[in-house]
């Protein structure tokens, strides 16, 4: 699993990567009340808004850390936004993306680096 | 001797307990149900004419109502009492200090109300012939003159009906100006991270992409980031000055220079104009468009007390695109221009919020130039008094230097106490004070934004600061229970915001018949 400074995680499996938000992000957002997911088939490049997470506190964009095409979204989240608080780094993934440039993941942090980054916030 | 004392005691007995009331009311304050729970459908407070003898239900075809309409039936006194009781459970600027940062809840002078009720202003209709409303048009024209004078800009669109409506007007004028030059490639609006949420919403509503400009450690626009993000794709920047951290953008002229050099326009969010009115003319800073919240800077009632009004001043480059209608003045007196080929369109059907124009104009005339300037200075002085006093018990977000009209604190001082900004705000309600703005601006963690306005006396500011200091003392003493469940003494306990957002109940539904029978 790789991590971004904007608190997205990304897990690669072959040429498809799963994207979600981290425990830290879910905790900071507070109770999530709405998740807006991208359409399947959308093409993303790094920095594009992948999803919108709305919590009681704020509405926040989730940015795509990578380029590729959305091949699947987590339909469960639309009727069950609290899932993002319950299992952010596992069950509450947002989207699966077919990577067009897997080397982009190399620039992201690993777990240890991300935890160091959090400690410095 | 004959005595008619009827046994009435004239001194209170010593009361040792405070029993709960049998009805749930608190003294003469009633527990007030919803209006639907109050009024049955079996009666009505309105006398309706009898159904005409020749009325045939068939005339309505499939428009015939098949279910009861479901409106509560209340008599006039029941209706009046319902809303007066609700108003007793609410807060208002006429009750006490209302320190909502960025909202400028200042006193609404009664002179303004008196002027707005003059029949020549209050009883006119937008469709009257202009020859019969010359005085009203003259007032709009003179108010426009002073708004232009105070801002140093040559034109003003009077019709927008609130701050965000004014933003929309300004961005539409900017779009029209770019298009008139054949410049259609600009698809982005830059907005600082500390902006009011309406700024990016306005830009997105018009169809622009929104890009954020970073903030410096001292709470201001990061010029290097601005310069890096400006380019031929940027239509405008939207900057609030003073900004939502309560700080003056010291580099505002450089912001304007960079923006103009990139061919973009400088939209200023004028929500905080009350801090600088009479001292700074935004036109001199390089602003191209700015809305003026008459309901903030010029004291017209808002926040449930009245509608907003958001006239937009425009630079010479944007003036030709101002929306219709607008007031003109010719040899035959005042008139309304309803058609202008260059205007980008129309913001609303008629000519804006007349009642607010009268109040704002009355405020201007009764204060004069020196009075408006002093109002701005006193607003800044009051905010700095709060900042100075409360910095001893709370953590100011930007400790260095003075603030403008609002004092911003973060929740650093609450760390590890078990009390959050929300808890602290709710406890303030128990102590008889409306809380400040919380969790805004978003760039400051656990933000508490206090705007006392110029209308509060030192005694009132001290009462407020005494209360905050006392509550801060309770936090330090570990009295967490006082905060976690607050408010305890308000008409309602703390709301479940999560449930309200996840599973909102937006419509009252009649309880099932058996539930009624069981009561």
Provide structural commentary.
- The complex is a heterodimer of chains A (121) and B (519).
- Chain A has 121 residues and is an alpha+beta fold.
- Chain A is 20% helix and 36% strand.
- Chain A has 4 helices and 9 strands; from the N terminus they run E-E-E-H-E-E-E-E-E-H-H-E-H.
- Chain A has helices spanning 23-29, 76-79, 83-86, 111-119; strands at residues 2-3, 8-13, 16-21, 32-36, 43-44, 49-55, 59-63, 68-73, 95-99.
- A 6-stranded antiparallel β-sheet of chain A has the order 1-2-3-9-8-5.
- Chain B has 2 domains: 111-366, Type I PLP-dependent aspartate aminotransferase-like (Major domain) (Aspartate Aminotransferase, domain 2); 374-502, Aspartate Aminotransferase, domain 1, CATH 3.90.1150.
- A 7-stranded mixed β-sheet of chain B has the order 1-7-6-5-4-2-3, sandwiched between helices. Chain B has a 4-stranded antiparallel β-sheet with strand order 10-11-13-12.
- At the A-B interface, loops of A face helix 14 of B.
What's the number of structural domains of chain A?
A: 1
Sheet of most strands of chain B: 7 strands, mixed
Q: Determine and state the CATH class of chain A.
A: Mainly Beta
Distance between the termini of chain A: 21 Å
Tell the overall outline of chain B: globular
**SSE arrangement of chain B, N to C:** HHHHHEHEHEHEHEEEEEHEEHEEHHHH
CATH homology superfamily of chain A: RNA polymerase II/Efflux pump adaptor protein, barrel-sandwich hybrid domain
Strand elements of chain A, count? 9
The mean pLDDT of chain B is 93
Oligomer: heterodimer
Instruction: State the CATH class of the largest domain in chain B.
Output: Alpha Beta
Return the CATH topology of the largest domain in chain B: Aspartate Aminotransferase, domain 2
Rg on CA atoms of chain A, Å: 13 Å
What ranges of chain B have pLDDT less than 50 throughout 5 or more consecutive residues?
Answer: none
Helix content class of chain B: 25-40%
Determine the most extensive contact between two protein chains: A-B, 9 and 6 residues
Helix fraction of chain A, binned, reads: 10-25%
The amount of beta strand of chain B, in percent, is 5-15%
| Total of DSSP H or I helical runs spanning 4+ residues of chain B | 15
